[in-house]
Structure formats: C-alpha cells, structure tokens
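Researcher: Let's try something more involved. This one mixes different molecule types, so please make sure each is placed in the same coordinate frame as the others.
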Amino acid sequence: MQELRTSLVEALARATGLPAPQVDGMVGLPKNPAHGDLAFPCFALAKRDGKNPVELARALADDIALPDGFAAVEPTGPFLNFRFDRAAFITRTVQSVLEQGDRYGAGAPNDDVVVVDYSSPNIAKPFHIGHLRSTLIGWSLAKIFRFLGHPVVGINHLGDWGTQFGYVWVGCERWGRPADDDPDPILALVDRYVRATKLKEEDPSVEEAARDYFRRLEAGDADARAFWDYARTVSLDEFKAVYARLGVAFDHYTGEAFFNDKMDGVLADVEAAGVGEVSDGAWGVSLGDDLGFALLKKADGATLYLTRDLAAIDYRHRTFGFDRVLYVVGAPQSLHFKQLSALCEKLGKPYHDRIVHVPFGHVHGMSTRSGGAVPLVALLDEAHERALRALREEVTKRPEGLDEDAVAEQIGKSAIIFNDLSRGRIKDVHFDWDAALSFRGDTGPYLQYAHARINGIAARAEAELPDAVDGSRLPEDEAFQLAAQIGRFHDAVRKAAATYEPSAIAAYLLDLARQFSRANEVLRVKDAEAGIKEQRFALFVACRQTLANGLRLLGIEPIDRM
RNA sequence: GCGCCCAUAGCUCAGCUGGAUAGAGCAUCGGAUUUCUAAUCCGAAGGUCCCAGGUUCGAGUCCUGGUGGGCGUGCCA
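Model: All components are placed in one shared frame. Result:
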C-alpha cells in the first residue's frame, strides 16, 4: 500500500512539476471506493496554471506514466482516480502478512526510548472504573510503541504518598484496622478513609491529625512508616490481581513514595537555579500569568505532587534516558503538566520539551447506588456474567465443547476494553452498563467473532495454504476490499502512535472485521474448487493475523473459538 | 473573572495534514440460515455538522466572536 502510494506520488510530481511532499498531501482515498483506490484532486494545480480543473484532470490522465502496480487512471470531474492492479495488490499484501506473521505492521528496532506513565491509582482507595481509562490507554500505547520498535518503559506511578494516607490512618486509629483474616482488607481501609474524610466536615481535628500523620511519614517516623507499609502492601496485592486479570503489566511500580528521599535534591535544584520564592509561607516558583504559581513546598514543609513529579522525571531521565515520557493522566491535570514542563525549562533541564501529557476525558455516571464508584472487579464480574448469559441464551449457534467460563471471561474483557479504547481519548464518557457490556454491533466481541470465525474455517473447511499466493484467483470486489483494508494496518498503527490514540486502531479493526464479514458471505472456502479454495483461505488467514496483531495492540488477547 | 476541553442522525460515536453524495453501531422497520459459528450479513428510514461572520476554487475540518456543557484556576492528587 505504502509503496504504491509513494510511486504514485512520484509519478504525479513528475507529471505536474509540483514538489512530491505537496503531492503527497493531496493524494487520498476516494470517499466512494467505487471511484478508485487512490485519488488526486486537481484544484490546486488548476489554480496554479489558471486552467479548468476538469480539463486538467483529463489532460493529466493522458500524460501520466502509470507506475508499476496500477491498472488504470481515469478522470472523474476534477479528480484523477487511480486503480490498483488488484490481483497483484492482493498477492503482495497477503504474501507479506503470511511472511511477517506477528510482525506484520511492526516497525524496525530503534533507540528512541519511550517512558509511559499510566494507571497510577491511589493506594488505600478503591481501584474503580475511573482508573480504567489510564490503565487501558497507557497499556495500549506501551504495546503500540513497543511494536514500532521503541524501547518502552512502563511505569505505574502509584499514588502511595500524600495527605490522603493520613485519613486512612486516622480512620484506622478510630475504628480499628481490618482483621488479619479479612477477605477484602482494602475495602475496610477504604471504609476508614471515607468515614474519616466525612468526619472531618464536623471535626477539624481530623484534618489536623491526618496532616500530622503525613508530616511524620515524610520525616521517617517508624510507626507511621509501618502503617504505610501495611496499607501499601494490602492495596498493591489487590491492584496486581486486577492487572493480572486484565492482562496489563508494568516494568516498574515506582510510586511517589519512591521519590521521597529525592525531594531535597529537587528543592536544591530549584534553589540553585534561583527561581524559588516564598509566598504566604509556602515555597514555589512563579510561572507567570498563564501558569500561575507552582507550589513545591507547603507552609508546613511537606512536599506536593508536583515536587515529586519533578523528582520522578529527573530520575527517569537519568535512569532510562528517555526520548519522550508519556503521562497518561486525565485532562483535568493539564495545568499540572504545563507547570511541570515550564518548571523543567526554568531549571534548564534538557528534557523539558519531551514531556507529553496524554489526556483523556472524564468518566461520568459510574457511581453505585450507594454513591461510591464501581469497583473494577465488579465491572469485570458483571461482564463475565452477561457474556455467559449471552452465550447460553442469545447465541443461536456455537461450537461444541466450549469452555464457557473461559470464553465468557475473555468476551467480557474484550467488551470492556474495546468500549473504552474505541472512542477518542479526550471526550468525556458517560458510563453506561448496557453500552459498555454490549456484545453486538461495533464491539470487542464483534472483532473476536470475526477472529473466531476464521479459526472455524481453518478447523473445518479442510483447506491448506497455497504454495504461492495468487491474487488473480480472487477477482471478487469483496476480496480486494478486504485485502485493501489489511494493507492499511501500517497506517492505522502509525496514526495511533503519532496521535497517542489507540482508538485509531480500534476504528481500523472494526472496518477490517466488517470487510471480513462481507467477504465471508461471498467467498466460501469449504466448497470452493481447488486452486481457488487455498487462495481464499490464505486471504482469510492474513485477515486473522492482522486482526490478532491489532487486538493485541489494544491489550485484547484474540480468542480462537466462541 | 481568566484558562483549557467538548458540541455531527432519536442515543453512543467515526470523520487522514481542508476535497467528490457527511459515515458506523444502537434503537425502529423489512429481508437473508438444508451449505466453513446468525455474537453475523443485506436493505429502508433517520442530518439547519450549536449559532453568526471570515479565509478559500472548496469548510464538519482553519480563523474571529457568541451560545450551551465539562474541567481547571497555590498549601489534594
């Protein structure tokens, strides 16, 4: 696909005298696929020459030397439409997928290190649906950049430090710690946290006690530290269970606490740069009208989130030598990251312009009846239940001997993950159980279904891959459209990386699955005559491979039967 | 007040760096299964792309100004 485009751009550049990059910007896909496979609008050229674009397109069609791989050029009004040599295109595309397998669409190894900071839940707070977006988007981006050949460092910057810990501590002091045999100790800790923060409304001493606890923790007080260790371990155990269930992983769990002993260094840095100042008893850096005052040390001496992020990025730069660091954090914190960049610039840090905030919109409407956020585990369990029910009651045909429980778990997760990653990051989402856990239409299960169907063909159609792929045996339009979509995988992956948008891949995969489903109505493998049978099978296998590669980039493990 | 983000079909959303008749899914209506999985496919219906100007041969897309909503705006993270 890419080579065809490049050679067409060169040919057009020669024929028109326009610079190739400009031509490249004009060549695009025709809106209506019936028009052709690539299109060149002649307006700009017509304007330059003071000619009629319709006549110009006609003249250009006669002039241009059709590059290899193209079968036809035809002017349609002011557009010049090009058609591929379809058979050759199918042959080339299917062949390269079969040859490259899991590496189809991948990039060459390079040295641009990408650090991805994602998930980063707060300790001693429930891991709820609100944490899902950062977790899934970050994990997907990590996989995408790794696929493109980058060394990737995935970091869970746990919120395991800060005043909120004080409230958990106060709560445990008042109402006791969860019992050792408590099956869900984190729930108990959350309960203490919620009760303590509620109590603070009427009893100001609670807030004071919480702050005092955090001060002691930062100062290295042994008792405070012991409680912190306990709460962190309990929380992390549960987080790791959720990550394991989702199939999400990290290279490091260096949370905010990890940087506690690096605070002095940061503050000294700022001091040395001579940009720090005292304001209302607190200490920080003034960043001007737009970014305001960046607080780095509270009046009571305790540090803040920003201080710890400053330490973290410096540490990451020293340790990983990153080319970029991606912060997959909600849009409400965009000011925070602008401040972080500005601070780094003021401090003369070489990485100040390599900070990328990858923001995402708010999630609304995910509260339970009781007002708390829905725990992620509850969502996963519900997804599992619904998938099981759908499998047993709604699905009309299904394979024999399925491990229904295992399939339901996979389908449920696919639905949840895809639902989140299929929309653009920045928009606020209104969480809706029925939409998130729908298994029909544009959903994760739809993609899985396409993948499983091809597996079914492989298992039952008694077809084998041909010795040589031959696209001329696949003259149907559906075959070409499917191959064309397979050939666009590169573009989708690169667009996703360039825009930090996994949804680019999600949208691509929907189109791919749709093209497959259409082709699957027409191109039967089982009863096809020898010679055609193998070619159709090869096309579908290439599709399955592409689906699998794309699904994995979203963090969804393709399933073989459903 | 100031700053950032969002606004496209009844609902949820796509729309490559401006290009041809604005696309999917859900919901509604109508079809398709003796044939590799109907969690599927085909069709119908559904639109002042929030409003008003501007730039351009051409604007859902870019600019300006509004309207509506969300978020942020120093001692939380």
